[in-house]
Amino acid sequence: MKKDKSHIHWYPGHIAKAERQLKEQLKLIDVVIEVLDARIPLSSAYNNIKKLLGDKPRFLLLNKSDLVLHHEIKEWIEYLKLETGCKVLLSDGKNSFNFNKIIDTAVALAEPKIQALMAKGLLRRPARVMVCGMPNVGKSSIINRLTRSSKTKTGAKAGVTRQQQWVRINPKLELLDTPGIIPTRQDNQEAASKLAMVNSVSENAYTAEFVARELLEILDRKYLDDVRVYYKLDAPPTLENIALSRNWIKSSAEPDIERTANYVLKSFRDGDIGKFILDDIPNNCD
Fold first, then answer.
1. What are phi and psi for residue 225, nearest 5 degrees?
2. For a tag site, which of 13, 131, 142, 282 has the least CB within 10 Å?
3. Is 6 helix (H, G, I), strand (E, B) or coil?
4. What is the reported pLDDT for 75?
5. Strand order in 31-37's β-sheet?
6. Rg, Å, the chain Cα set
7. Do 51 and 102 touch, CB atoms closer than 8 A?
């Protein structure tokens, strides 16, 4: 079936089951780490997370923070703290990040539950922590770095982790790795497009041309100078202009839009164009 060029379609079947699987596991969990993509802090969040988790303690982890500007992500941290009431930490793709903060925060949030169990005469046990989030936000990579191993399957494609598994971090903490949460229906196409831009949606669900055009519109609005400098353009940063500037012309003498779209998406995802946050902080917050 031909893809609709102006719509993101959902989903691989295993992702659609993720919410049900999480609900089944929640009774075993003390604390939830919700991993977000720092480039899309709102669009990579699960809207029904409070309903799903109930009163389970959680904190937010803005991953891939090395792909955004420091002063911009600081504003997002303050907004998310205010909006969610949760602690917000950063992680990135480099070895410099101190993951002890993640462990210490999870253990501290679990302590009231552990104390309550001990008050009933049970022995102290490790905090049981769930890592959740949209596909490809970096959940498995975070766990692998916490454990300094590669016990968890990871990869660059959306939805790589298909089976839930416990990972022992240290005597104080155990992590339950989970498939990424994603709704069975995505009514918000703007958020869906941004998820595709950061590679959190299967490539089968969209056309590169549609997503790349949407991406360039956002970058043109928010980071015009960076984009024009990177692509060496004096004209607006459209797929056509980028193709022409690189002489990517098909035999029909038309710009090679498909090649250019894939190039634009890759250069954004790799951080080559610059460090960008695609979401906007809502204006209605005080």
1. -60, -45
2. 13
3. coil
4. 97
5. 88-90, 58-63, 31-37, 127-133, 173-177, 165-170
6. 20
7. no
3-state secondary structure 65-104: HHHCCHHHHHHHHHHHHHHHCCCEEECCCCCCCCCHHHHH
Environment class of 113 (CB within 10 Å of its CB; exposed 0-12, middle 13-18, buried 19+) = middle
Distance CA 167, CA 144 (A): 9
Alpha-carbon distance of 244 to 242, in angstroms, equals 5
Please list the residues that pair with 49 across neighbouring strands.
none
**Burial of 76 per CB tally in 10 Å (0-12, 13-18, 19+):** buried
Backbone angles phi, psi at 51, to 5 degrees: -65, -40
Higher pLDDT residue, 273 or 180? 273
Long-range contacts of 183-190 (CB under 8 A, 24+ apart): 183/10, 183/19, 183/46, 183/47, 183/48, 184/10, 184/11, 184/16, 184/19, 185/10, 186/8, 186/10, 189/7, 189/8, 190/43
| Distance between CA atoms of residues 257 and 3, nearest Å | 16
Largest CA distance in the chain: 78
Nearest of 24, 281, 12, 262 to residue 161 by alpha carbon = 12
Whether a cis peptide bond, with omega within 30° of 0, leads into 11 is yes
**What pLDDT, in 10s, does the model give residues 60-113?**
999 999 999 999 999 999 999 999 999 999 998 665 567 889 999 999 999 999
Instruction: Give the C-alpha distances (Å, rounded to integers) separating 49 from 19, 22, 121, 267.
Output: 10, 11, 32, 32
Amino acid at 286: D
| Rounded Cα–Cα distance for residues 283 and 260 (Å) | 34
pTM over 0.85: yes
CB distance 162 to 113 below 8 Å: no
